Amino acid sequence: MDDLNAWWAALAGLAIGAAVGFTTRRARLCSFGAIEDALVGFDTRRLRVFGLALGIAIAGTQFLVVAGLLDPRATSYVPEALPWIGVALGGVMFGLGMALVGTCAFGSCVRLGSGDLRSLVVLLVFSATAYAMLRGTLAAYRITFGEAMALTMPLSAQADLPGLIDPILGLSSRAVAAAGVAAVLIALAVMDMRLRKARRLLAAGIVLGLGVVAGWLATEHLVDEFVHAARPQSLTFVAPAAITLYGLLLDGTMLVNFGTASIIGVIVGAFAAAHVGDEFRWEAFDDAREMRRHLLGAVLMGVGGVLCGGCTIGQGITAGSLLALSFPLAVAGMVLGARLGIAFLMEGRAFFFLRASPRSAAGRSRLVGGRRSRS
């Protein structure tokens, strides 16, 4: 019976991951590509799609909270104190790492499903580094430096937007704040005429947003807390990747969980999408230099992802759906790190973009994007 209880959540993670992986691969939706398009190519369509996903995730998740179906304080994203230095620094490291790799942890799963063996190497190194930060040799440094300086919420015991402003207003602002933020994000996407014609992009954003909501529901109500004491979770690709690697190497029983199953589901969904579109291709590193860049990027993403508490999906959408205060810090750090990485790859120095003209930067971005950002 205990095993059956765990399998229900795992099957839900597999189904959600497969749906997200399939639609994302078909739409070529990539978080790093969206940042690169917006900051360097001045094309915000893919970024608006992630905004659409976030808006849907906020609306659905906050409905669950208001209805009493989900307690934000039971998750890992709404603690009593916010380790803001670790979150910000980790975000920068993760952003720089995904610029070196050309995609994030989630994108690496999608690429692996499409036949990219470079992503297999990235995921192995990323997962090993993340596990070392979580429970291994680097965990002491994470606790000492990443979590030592935490900002305690002065008026409440939860680090989310309602917990910050409700004591000041003297009333509950959750429903109004969630509705307002979600409406703005969704409107920014659907009001873009070019984006309305990109049905695959819109479908990917909708499925991703709904997938986050479904993940909260699955892990909150399909898992018996008396049998498996675990926090509610949704789509994220840092800690689950670390646990998956540990389970494959040492303890197979740890593989039956929502996080591991969602990673497998993304890979399977991307594989199916690549075959449907006749786009499955085996790919490997071109040379030693490319491999070194990917290895360094994977290490930075592993360390940074643990420090900031998630990846572009885990912090960018899942934590955002809870209106967690870590969300803007982590995302801002990731954007900054990605921009520094792009500038370094284009010009060999991280601060070139401070003096580059938009025309020259956009032109070089197209060259970089054509070679690297293919997701």
Short key terms for the protein model shown above:
single chain, 375 residues, mainly alpha, two-stranded antiparallel ribbon, 17 helices, 2 strands, disordered C terminus
Q: How would you explain this protein's 3D organization?
A:
The chain has 375 residues and is mainly alpha-helical. The protein has helices at residues 2-27, 31-39, 45-66, 84-101, 105-113, 117-134, 139-146, 161-169, 174-190, 193-197, 199-221, 239-249, 258-276, 288-308, 314-321, 326-347, 358-371, and strands at residues 81-82, 151-152. α4 packs parallel to α16 and α6 (117-134) packs across α12. Mean pLDDT is 88; it is low at 350-375.
Could you outline the blueprint of secondary structure elements for this entry?
Layout: H1 2-27, H2 31-39, H3 45-66, E1 81-82, H4 84-101, H5 105-113, H6 117-134, H7 139-146, E2 151-152, H8 161-169, H9 174-190, H10 193-197, H11 199-221, H12 239-249, H13 258-276, H14 288-308, H15 314-321, H16 326-347, H17 358-371
Antiparallel strand pairs: 1-2
Short description:
With 375 residues, the protein is mainly α.
How big a fraction of the residues is strand? Answer: under 5%
Order of strands across the widest beta sheet? 1-2
Main beta sheet: strand number and arrangement? Answer: 2 strands, antiparallel
**Which stretches of 5+ consecutive residues score pLDDT under 50?**
350-375
- The tally of strands reads 2
Instruction: Round the Cα radius of gyration to an integer and report it.
Output: 20 Å
User: Order of helices and strands, N to C?
Assistant: HHHEHHHHEHHHHHHHHHH
Kindly name the structural category. Answer: mainly alpha
Number of helices: 17
| Mass-distribution shape | globular
The tally of domains stands at: 1
Distance between the termini: 41 Å
The share of residues in helices is: 55-70%
